[in-house]
Amino acid sequence: MRVTDERLSSTNTDNRSIRTDGGDRSLRTDRSREPNCPGSLIVVSNRQPYRHEYDESDDERSVSVDEPTGGLTAGLDPVCQRTNGTWIAWGDGDADFDVADDRHCVSVPPSSGAYTLRRLDLSEDAVDSYYRGFSNRVLWPLCHGFTDLLEERPNDFEWYRSVNDQFATAVADHADDDSVVWIQDYHFALAPRTIRDSIPSSAAVAQFWHIPWPTPETFRDCPAAVGILEGLLGNDLLGFHVDRYAKNFLECVERALPSATVDRDRHTVRYDGEATTVVATPMGVDAKRYDRNARSADPSRLSSVFSTNGVSSETVLGLGVDRLDYTKGIPERLAALERFFERNPRWRGSFTFVQKATPSRTEIPAYQRYGEFVRDEVERINRRFATEDWRPIVYTDSYLETETLAALYRRAEVMIVSPLVDGMNLVAQEYVASSSDADGTLLLSDRTGAHERLGSHAFTIDPTDVDGFARRIDDALSTPRHERRRRMSALRNRVFDRDIGWWMATQFDWIRRVHDDRQHEGHSDLDPDSPEYTSPI
């Protein structure tokens, strides 16, 4: 999204809220639940919130700015603006360092310059080894349980360590006695320990791990298991989406670090003179924004997608929206759809499934093979069932604008979310928030973090059970309208009540407690020896 004078904040609230049946109701805004950082905020992430790019179509090569359009980045941006904070990230825009100062800093957003964006200039070798290498060829498959896809390349881990050290040095440049350092995700497993050792002892360090944490049996295949755990235990606070990942982490620490003291009841670890509290907080989406986009979507966008792909406007629509990633269970979904059409010929010609796939990490062979297999399977199934005027599966990996995706979300009678494993899965929540007519159905894998929040009102699927999966598709399509609306209303209640703003506010509540603990030298209510201590999970 190109920068404009008027910004949309994911945490902005107005005086309207969304009814689960699709209407509106007035409300009193609860300002007490807005994210509020207790100290000077330093965010650390791989991706940056603003990217400066040259316009190659312009002879003068003017610079444009891409700004956040959703998710965590858009949610944290206004918090940084309110706190005059600092954001440290990899600068991957071709004009990023031409607009920055000698320290690689630039004031953002362009309209106000409310906070500092510090960019790290990573070499191609660093990006290839730290990001494409250890992060996504080791940690990603490991944490998702695909140990057969682990790919250890020479020097990847050393580059990972080096880049983590570079980020830690940048944090130390900006940290003061009152700082809160909030690290995002698995790209920085080693950085917390280095940061802890290089910033004032009164500053707090927190991290949210957005992907699953594996069982000890799986984690032992990690080529740097002890170093990863020691790095993460540099945090005062470590967050996961759901309880089982937090418990897996504690068990891994217990087995791999004999000198660590793990308190499973209080969900704390004491190691090397420091204490780490482990919390589970499921992340939400900007539900109001998705609802607003769906309500305002131009119908012509949907018509264009349908006409381009030969889809009848009268079709019953199924939808899948995924990155082309081996964790997402797309082949299993296609197998279930094939079985469904095989056993339910009455739906041939009247039900069409649209699979939107986004190419991802295409430089990694496992992803290349996966994408090729998915496309081949779609072609094979279509050859088996297609007629002159109907295809069972429409596949696209083309870019879809936000408005077009919003229209598809709203129009889809059935949404299938079938990962083999997923830390949370925000697509399921995006679909629910976009179902402003409260008339769709969600099929949701029981192997996602989202299932713990939404599973009781979704159609639960085991993505590896082809027959059962196919039956659930038929169940969803055959469900009476009143039952569909009851389920979707309940789902919308949950998604709107626990949105991205709630998640961030809850995170900052915990961060405030560890920050107070640091500020008061261990006398806060987060001290595990205090009788007032309450368990975080």
UniProtKB/TrEMBL annotation:
Region: Disordered, residue numbers: 1-76
UniProt biased composition (Basic and acidic residues): 16-34, 50-64
Example GO biological process: trehalose biosynthetic process
GO molecular function, one term: alpha,alpha-trehalose-phosphate synthase (UDP-forming) activity
InterPro entries: Glyco_trans_20
One Pfam family hit: Glyco_transf_20
Domain of life: Archaea
Database matches in PANTHER family: BCDNA.GH08860, TREHALOSE-6-PHOSPHATE SYNTHASE
Protein name: Trehalose-6-phosphate synthase
